[in-house]
Amino acid sequence: MLMVWFLLIGGLVQCLLLLRLLRTGRRLDRESRQQAPWRRRWPSAALIVPAAGEHPMMEAALRSLLLQDYPGLMPVFVTATAEEPAARLIGALRKEFPALRHVVAGRAEGCGQKNHNSLAGVAAAGDAVELLLFCDSTHLARPDFARHLAAPVAEGRSDFSTGYHTVRPRDASLVTLAYAFCVQLMRYLQGLTPSFTQPWGGAMCMRRAVFEHMGLRRFWQENVVDDCSLAGLLAGLGKSVVLSPGALLYTEAERHSFRVWRAWMDRQVLFLKFCVPLQWLLLGLLPLMMMLPPLAMLWAVVGMALGAVPVWTGLIGLCLAAWLLLLLHGWRCQVCAPGSLWRWLAAFVLSAGVFAEVYLRTIPAGGILWHGIWYRVGRGGRVLEVRRQ
């Protein structure tokens, strides 16, 4: 009985946290719809986009980045080789956008391939640009995305700013909905409090002078990932990152693959394990917070029906369960998820279960598999070995 009460209190904490995050999400959505500021003079900037693979949304995403209304923005798209599909796509886009620079970085040996590509893009941009904007190649951007992303740095509020993305689920499959929920949770956590805000490599801006002063070139040359490693470095230096809600990218998801979703989740957890281990340890509490309280609510209600627990205990569990469903309905409305509330609830349960399994598997892991490349990783995200499969 004491355990049931303990878990019901956990249910109350869970509902309060989901409510706080939902309010944060609504605030972020309101702010994301605001127009980007106009300035008499914007700092010169390069938009560096590492590209790889054959994502079905890549052409539309790259095109949206080439249509930014940031004055004088220099687009630099980077691939590892000149023969891969992403390189052929960039070659076709150059005919339509002559200002686009395509850089072939070559294969990475001592760091993550994305890091290697990003650094090649920085070198190609030259010393004249004042701001470095980094962006993923598979998310759709509004025309004012770059101005939103650069504004906190251009206005002097910080040397680093970040955006994030949101998923637009186009079907009601459980994997698509679970993926949308996971990204939604991570975005809301980014905006919960400034201490939770971390750079996200999919939408990140920094001063070129700070990049050089902090020695980020050499730092990334030895690391497996750009954003999580930078988060750990900035935390140690006491530097903050400003979240720009308007720097929001859009991810179209339809018939999302379970294998792709699980691999993505695996990387998110492993990046934290190697780069920010304290956050990785705290992250282990999340699946427990997601799974155990709802089970306690269910047990209280079923126990009341069977006469195994007092009626008032069952009623408390029933009220908490109803509140949880109401909150999940609010989360569902925020991403306009198709399907019924019960399907969204099933996606919530699936997210919790898969996350718990993924987290347990990361405990003994000594490396990361990313785009067919195996990286053996040491403390701080430093790459110890690279093997191509």
Polypeptide structure, described:
With 389 residues, the chain is of the alpha/beta class. It contains 14 helices and 10 strands. The strands form 2 sheets. It has a 7-stranded mixed β-sheet with strand order 3-2-1-4-6-5-7, sandwiched between helices. A 3-stranded antiparallel β-sheet has the order 8-9-10. Strand 9 (373-377) and strand 10 (383-388) form a beta hairpin. Helix 1 runs parallel beside helix 13 (311-334), helix 10 packs across helix 11 (277-283) and helix 12 packs across helix 14. It is globular and about 75 Å long. It starts with a helix and ends with a strand.
Quickly list its features:
seven-stranded mixed β-sheet
Topology:
Blueprint: H1 2-32, E1 45-50, H2 58-66, E2 74-79, H3 85-96, E3 101-104, H4 113-125, E4 131-135, H5 145-154, E5 160-169, H6 174-192, E6 203-207, H7 208-213, H8 216-221, H9 227-237, E7 242-253, H10 258-275, H11 277-283, H12 285-306, H13 311-334, H14 341-362, E8 367-370, E9 373-377, E10 383-388
Parallel strand pairs: 1-2, 1-4, 2-3, 5-7
Antiparallel strand pairs: 4-6, 5-6, 8-9, 9-10
Helix pairs in contact: 1-6, 1-12, 1-13, 2-3, 6-14, 9-10, 10-11, 10-14, 12-13, 12-14, 13-14
Estimate the helix proportion, in percent.
40-55%
Give the radius of gyration. Answer: 22 Å
| Structure classification | alpha/beta
Q: What are the secondary-structure elements, in order, as H or E? A: HEHEHEHEHEHEHHHEHHHHHEEE
SS elements, strand count: 10
Assess the beta-strand content as a share of residues.
15-25%
What is the averaged pLDDT score? 93
Overall 3D shape: globular
Strand order of the largest sheet: 3-2-1-4-6-5-7
Give me the number of helical elements: 14
- pLDDT under 50 segments (min length 5)? none
The end-to-end distance, rounded to whole angstroms, is 53 Å
* Main β sheet profile: 7 strands, mixed
